[in-house]
Amino acid sequence: MTGVRKNIAVLPGDGIGPEVTRAAIQLLQDCAAAFGHRFQFRDYAFGGNAIDSHGVPLPPQTLAACRASDAVLLGAIGGPKWESLPFGTRPEAGLLGIRKEMGLYINLRPIRLRPALRGISPLRPERLGECDFEIVRELAGDIYFGEHKITKEKASDVAEYSVPEIERVARYAFERATARNKHLTSVDKANVLASSTLWRDTVSVLAREYPSVTVDHLYVDNASMQILLRPTQFDVILTGNMFGDILSDEAAALAGSIGLIPSLSRGRTDQPALYEPIHGSAPTLAGKDVACPLGAVFSATLMLRESFGLKAESEWIESAVDRALARGYRTADIAGAGDRVVGGSEFTQAIRNELHAAARQAERSSFGG
Asked: How far is CA 111 from CA 114, 122, 275, 278, 312, in A?
């Protein structure tokens, strides 16, 4: 099989971002060596560090490089250092800007409990079940991109959606559900919000094109409760920008930590997608080698699967993660009694050791050993 060549734009960002992206890149390099691929990585300024070096959170050269890449790998952005900046000029403005400029209107967040980490989930095993569902979040509309006004005594934020904006993300969610267990749950607040009423009506009409998919609708407050009461009822959750932001962080707790959850942000299939862990920059942990790299690692394996079509390579890395976890390796945030607590770099090396052992075993098997 001929190996693939891919150019990956890396936005390490702020805080622990450079540490976790470094871990992901090391595993991707191991993967490329084992499977005969060539991945080229190049770092670009983004977020707070871009403000410090270029005066803006999203420099033009960074945006141009991302557009020209095959995929983008992002670490994390933000921190107290930049919180006093005017609204719209902080690191988070770079994140909203890159989503808008690259046309990223779909966000996928898989919520999956790793077998070795069942003990750190806050839910009882009989309530938790297998805990394997996806949240599809609309990413380019809603209150985050509406008009913002603020005075000393009054502020407003406009939540706005159009039918085409809803249809394009809903269609993606229906396709995901069709490929999984054929169940889609659309989450809104249609009893009080006009934008949610349009959301529900649009999803209901589109559902006629997918007769094999069972569709139900939940108000967001009930959905937040149901995720904790019976997560096994969900297959694919479809929701708007703000609700998806909140619900996916809540759902991450089921898997044990927000530091474990990857995400994909994408638009048209002929344009590069962006991959990032959903956790923040955790500035108090930066430079201490204690951050869990798994959110970034799983973002990298999601990239292999979704952007590059390299399913076997993705599973190869994830299996190595599961073996390292089974051997008791943990960073402090996901550790339990009796686990071997190590720093982020040693944890990454434990995963790499599993990869190298698997590669050696495969080589021996190919020679009949």
From this structure: 10, 14, 15, 11, 20
Q: Which residues contact 363 (CB under 8 A, 6 or more apart)?
A: none
**Active-site hit among 161, 172, 188, 189:** 189
221 catalytic? Reply is yes
Q: What is the pLDDT of residues 200-220, one digit of tens each?
A: 999 999 999 999 999 999 999
Q: Which domains does the chain have, with CATH numbers?
A: 1-102+272-369 (3.40.718.10), 109-262 (3.40.718.10)
SS3 state of residue 26? helix
Identify the pLDDT of residue 362: 72
Judge whether 249 counts as a catalytic residue.
yes
Give pTM, 2 decimals.
0.93
Residue 111 and residue 121 in contact, taking contact as beta carbons nearer than 8 Å: no
In this predicted structure, the answer to whether residue 1 has a pLDDT above a threshold of 80 is no
And the tokens for 160?
């706005």
The mean pLDDT of 223-240, rounded to a whole number, is 96
